[in-house]
What we know:
Helix content: 40-55%
Shape: rod-shaped
CATH class of the largest domain: Alpha Beta
CATH topology of the largest domain: Heat Shock Protein 90
Low-confidence stretches: 400-433
Number of domains: 4
Distance between the termini: 142 Å
Mean pLDDT: 79
Number of helices: 10
Radius of gyration: 41 Å
Strand content: 15-25%
Amino acid sequence: MTNAVTRHPEERELLHAAFRSFDEAAHTLQQSYSALTARVEQMDLELGQSNEALRRQLGDNEAMRVHLDGILESLSTGVLVTDDCETISRSNRAAEALLGATDAELRNRRASDVLAGAGLGLCDRPQRIGQTVVSISRVPLHNDSGERSGHLILFQDITRIYQLEEQLQRKERLAAMGELIGRIAHEIRNPLGSVELFASMLQRDLGGQPSAKRYAEQISQAVQSTDRLLANLLLYTRPVRMARGWHSVESLIEESIKLAAHAITKVPVEIRKDVSREVRSIWCHDGQLKQVLVNLVVNAVQAMPNGGVLAISLSQEPSQALGMPAVRLIVRDSGMGIDPAHRSRIFDPFFTTKDEGTGLGLAIVHSIVEAHQGRIDVESTVGQGTSCSIILPHPSRGRDPNEVQTGTRSRPESSDAHPIEPEVVLAEEWSHE
C-alpha cells in the first residue's frame, strides 16, 4: 500500500510534466500557426499588390501597344517590318495601299520579292507606284538590348515634292526659253510685216493676172499663218494683264466645247459634265480660260482616236491647295495616256510627239494658268487616260477681287490699265502620243 502511494505522486508528477510539455508544444504550435497565418496574409496582400501592379502594367502595355499601332497605322509613310532574313512580319495601311496587298498577304513573304513584284527596288531615286512617287529606304531595327532584330522598309510619299521640283525646273527652263522665243518672235515679226505689205500690193497690182495673183495670195496666207504662230509665241512669253470677273461656269464650258467642235465631231466622244452646285461661277478672264479649255479638250479628244469619254468637272478645292479659297477644274479623257518618259516635258514649248503641230498648246495653257495665280496638275496612266486638273483662286463674291492677288504670287491689277484681251486661238491640236 505504501509503495502504491509512493509511486502515485511520481506518476502524477510525470503526468503533470507531460501535460506541461504538451501545453508548451501546443502553445508553440499555436504561435507558429499564428505566425504562418500572418505570413500567408502578408503574402496574399503582397501577391494582390503584385497582381494589381501587373494588371496596371499589362493595361499600360496594351494601351501603349494600341497607341503605337494607331501611330503606325496613321503614318502616311508606308512601313514593312522584316526579320534578318527579310521575311515580312508586319505592315501598316500606307504600305498595304501602295503595294495593293493586305497585311495577311504580305506576312511571311520576302520583302525583296514583294518589291520586285511591284517593279520597285531599294534605292534613293524616286520611283512610281501608279500615280504616286515614292522613295524607298531600309533602316535597322533594334530591340531593348540594342541588338539588331530586323529591318524597317520605309515608303515615303514624295509626290508633291517631286511635282514642286518638276514645276521649279519647268519654270526655270521655260523662263530661259521664253526670253529667247520672245526675242526671236519680235525679230521675225518685223520683216514679216513688210512681206505681208508687199504681198498685198502684189495682189492689187496683179488683178489682171489671176495665176500670178494666186501666188501672191498664197504668200499672204503663209505670212498670216506665220503671224498667228508668232502671236501665240508672244502670248506665251509676254506678261499678261487680264481684266478678270465672275463668269458662268456652264457658259464657259459650253462655249469651249463649241469652239472645239472641229475636233470633237471627228470621233465618237461622250461628253460628261459635272459642275458642283456650290460653284456656279468662276473668277477668271473668260477669253483666256476658254482658250485653256479648248486646248485641253482638243488635246483630250485627239488622245481618243477611236472615241471614248470626255469628262469636265468643277468643284471646290481645300484652301491649302493654293493657300486661299480655290476651285478645281478637271478635264479627263479615257484615251491612250501619256508615256512616263514624256510626262515631265508636256508643258515645254515646241515639245510634241505629233508629226504636225507646234508643241505650244499645253505651254500656253500652263502660261495662262500661271497668270491666273493657279496650278495645273496632270495624272496619266498609259492605256487608261489622262486627267488635267486646274486649280484656280476662288475669292468670296463680296471681296475686292484684287485682294486675291496677295503676297508674292502676283502684282495687283491696276484699275485704269487697259487689259490685253487676246481672242481665243487654237494654238495647235496636240495629242498625248
